[in-house]
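Lecture 7 notes. Example A: sequence first, then its structure tokens.
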Amino acid sequence: MAEKIEIEKASSSSQNLICPLCLDIFDEPTILRCGHTFCRKCLKKYDLTHQDIDHMVCPLCREITKLSANRVDDLRLNVSINGFVDDYHAKCGGMNAVLEMCTKCTGCKFQQDAVSFCITCNNYICDKCLQSHQCMTLFEDHEIVSVEDVIEGKVSIGHQFEKCSIHKQENKDMFCDDCKVRVCLRCVVVGHKVHNIKNQSDFEHELRRKVTELAKQCAAKKAELEKNIQNIELQRHEVHTAMQKLLDDVSQAYSIKVKELEGNLQDLIEQINELKRSFEDDLNILKSKDRQRIKSICSSITLVDNDRLGHLETDSLSAHNLLCNELEAMLKDVTNRTTAEVIAKKAQEKRLNPGDKSRLDLGFISGSDPKLEIIKCIDLRGKMIGMTAYSHTSVAIVYGSSARGIDIIDTAGGTEQYTNIPHDVGYNDIVIQRYSALCVSTGNTEAHVYSTNGSRKATINVSGTGYYLTLNRSPSNEILIANGANKVYIYDPTGSTLKHTVPTKHKTWQVSSTRSGLIVTSSCNFLNPRVVTVYDRDGNAGESLQAPKDVYLYAAVDEQDRVYVASVDRMGCKVVIRLYDLDGLNLKERVEFKALNMTLGDYWCYLVSLSPDLLAFACNNKLYFIKVLL
């Protein structure tokens, strides 16, 4: 009797140790944040389909549990349930097999071992119940099968309904879809009237059909994905083939370019060797002249320094006297101490002028006399208001309300009007963006961005200070705007987004940018101070270059991040241009070129770098193209 009670307790308690996913006794019961417990291996299988997220959704209540880097492995073990599982296994041992083999009669109250199963009654029956089924006409239509056939799987007996724990005689043969529990008919009437109730058999059939359909879909999807994996590997081969061809093409192109560069290198080496020979010859000539003078001095002193000078005849005395005079003159000659230093200085002043980025060459050897040369002076058709680089050999000029429109002018003096946008408007400034798009300012607060076909893409509105907007662009095609305020506005290339506002120490009128994003500002107005300053994007500034009284400074940045600064003395009609290298946020002077005589007539000027060896300078109604020779 005690053994029977223990078996019943074990069978009952095992129902509380079932994993909701695998429907088996818990194996490493693992608890989620919500308190629900599952087998660790079941959670790992479940997590395989959610590797792209950093959390797990509980399969029962949908609450979220955050996962660490080790995912399920770092979740806590449910110690309580794990203890119950261990106790269950310790107490029961092989009890499950015994229970399965010794099924009890469910048709009567005596709990005898079942020998048959009545499919009609849906009950296991003992010998006495079997005799009743065989003898009584009440049961003559019932279908009876043996327990051995049921255990061996020869006969399917369908589902054994669990008895309701509240209404003891009722089967839990219905399923509440709202509460997700099995219930009996009386439970439905009492507590689940308005719920969505399904017949247990129908629910199981529906669920099984759904699972079967999902299994088919999974098989189809698996086949599709495996086919896709095969295609991926095929495409991987195609990619590798294409990349290898690209690599071969690059290697071939590299070999060709290397030959060109090697030829260029050889030419430069020959030039340098020729310069070296020339300087060596010059130094050797100097050395030879000094050695010859030493030889002459030694010969002369040998002739005149003689013990018999007192016994010489008149002619000999005269000859020695002449030799002494020549020796005195020779000694009075100034020793040439500077020519060799001049030659060395010339050698030290030789520089490699790097090649233009648009050409494949290393560059050329420059001379020792850096200078600027005005190669073209052009009369403009009105007063210049704004200027920008249009190409490596041309500029775009805007004239404002006096002459209106935009002119494109090249180094040969060729001029044409730009007509893709309205040309009867008085523009204040212009900048040509990449791919021939452009931005123009039309007043104190507005600038417009146009596409290559002349359609307006965007309008930029800047809070005004009463002064018109000046424009430029960065090497990354951002739009730079100054308006005489203590700040610089930086917009994205479309003009739709203000990316940065850089505070400045002085009122800023013109602005440029380096490849690294530094901002070079010019405070080139009649107001003091007139300075050029370099800023980073956070507004940190270097030491400013400041102009003396009545001199205005205009800055331009070239493709190599060198900074040209024009000092304009309007009263003296003189322009001095200096070349600076960037040293952090400071400007380090490299070259001061000789002053250029120009017709000025106004304090408002523009300096633009078109290429590393070409500048454009405009003032009032004059435009100058200036060649840079370093």
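Example B, a different protein, same format:
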Amino acid sequence: MVHLTDNRYSAVLVAINENVAEDRRLLDYIKDIFSDASARLYDATNQRASFSDVTILIPKTWNHNITSEQANTERYDIANVIVDEANPDYGDNPYTKQPYGCGQKAEYIHLTPRWITDREYAVKYWGDSGKVIVHEWGHLQWGLFDEYPIEDDEHFYLDINGRVEPSRCSESITGVSYDIDRGRFCNLDPDSGVLPGPGCRFFPDGVGKGSYMYANYLDTVLNFCHDDPNGDSESRHSAMSLNKQNKQCAYRSAWDVMNSSADFDAVNPPQANMDTEPTFRVVQEAEFRSVLVLDLSISMAAVLETSQSGDAGGGVIFLTTDGAETRAPWIRDVTDELMTKQVIVDTLAFSDAADDTLVQLSDDTGGQACWYSESDESTAVHDCFTTSVTGRISSGQDALVQVASTSVNIEGSGTYSGIANIDSSIGRDSTFSFFWEFGKAAIVVSLRKPDGTVIDSSDRQYYGDIPGRSIVIKVDGIAETGTWEYDIQNTDSARQAVQIYISSKAADSSASPIRLTSTPSVNTISESPPMVLIYTDLNQGHSPVLHAEVIATIERPSPHSSMELQLFDTGLGEVLKRR
């Protein structure tokens, strides 16, 4: 987590994707860009913020002679800035993945290798690279939005006096209006009250100091817009401009949002004459290390013992517990030591009785917190453990894709039939896994390919493990695209739950698979009625998959049953349905 202490951001992480070809120039240019950005940020925040230290994470596939320092808690999937191949929708344009609301921190800044190393190209089209980073930092750290118009009807507006104004921030920025459709200057009379035609655009000429969220490429732009009547008039916020900042932030200025953040809310006052040059570390991605801890004693002694005399930094402890703390050492007693050792703790809480402080332990150590309702329908145990491992071991096309994870109840001597769809982006190393209950008779499975071929217990791809209560079918080669059908026969006379897990990898190791990820807006819900947002991404690489139907299954504490919620691209979700 990035922290602003004594006017300097520490623990900024820039991570290079494993698919980026080794190029040591990237390291030097990243250092130059962030050194420039630190000085620019210091000026833009009125001497209140700069970068203290920046860590650059290189892939483990790169030459080991580049650095002798191995990564600890640094991982690609939690980086503040990623360096990866271009997003097809944006090309080499730097951007910030910002799915959340005004004032909320975004996920990451995406830079491309070409934007970093081709300096003439980058400066020609985007201006000073340090200023670009400051613009994107506004999105990432403070939840600001762009102040330039995007839609055709946003480029001009009528102010309170009926005068025609270009959408910009601040209004002190001057320029010309040009009709890009007709190839001539717009017939723009501010006092006419008539908005220009749809092809008319405003082109600033470089006068005016604000704002970074509007036109950071202008040499004269040095500040973020504010609404202080006694402040610099050349950076005053334009509340009527038609842009995302006004729409998403209820017409608040950038500085008003920034001042509400933990960075500037009565902390980090201006410090003059600061040295803004950050320090840099280059670390190399380390092999993944994980330890499973079953805390039967309901104390933290086992966790302390597991965290490895020796170099435990960057290791992951997956802790499961089914109750509250009953004896020392308590969670609060070990958290500081775990953080000092840089040990990550993922927690899985069984039932409503598990201690609430498990969530805080995961938050403090940079881990993930999961909860298992113990319902027959729940797959939380498998899903949480799988995410703990696979979510960290690969950032590229070789990552495991979960196709299905479900639990079904099958009546005694009954049969359940289900389907799974293998899309064209995956198919390599496809695995169909089926698990039955303790103390129940083994199940029998048959799997039918899209071409009608059947895989059953007579096939060499079929692996039955009676002691392990599992049947695993590992499909040879690339699994066919289409619908796969499976039949599960319960040979026990009593009803039993069977859990089904299907996974695959990208069909082509050089191409990205379609993947779905999801996260709630909060880890712990304390309000009644509960208020939580669910964010889900369905992407192929960096490109979103459009027009998909996405259903979230939500497990709730007893006595409530699970519920299904359709998610919408509008971001309104259940609110839209209720209205």
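Note on Example B: Confidence is low (pLDDT under 50) at residues 573-579. Residues 88 and 543 are 7 Å apart (CA to CA).
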